[in-house]
Amino acid sequence: MARITLLGVPLDCGKARRGCLMGPDAYRVAGLAETLTDLGHSVSDAGNIAPGEIRQIDGPAHLHALPETVAWTEALAGWGRSSDGLVVFMGGDHALSMGSVAGMAARSADRKRPLFVLWLDAHSDFHSPASSSSGNLHGCPVAYVTGQSGFDAFPPLVAPVLEDRVAMIGLRSVDGAEKRALEQSAISTHDMREIDETGIAAPLRAFLRRVAAAGGDLHVSLDVDLMDPMIAPAVGTTVPGGLTFREAHLVMEVLSEADVVTSLDLVELNPALDERGKTAQLMVDLTASLMGRRIFDRPTQGFIEA
Question: Could you confirm whether 127 is annotated as catalytic?
Answer without folding.
Answer: no
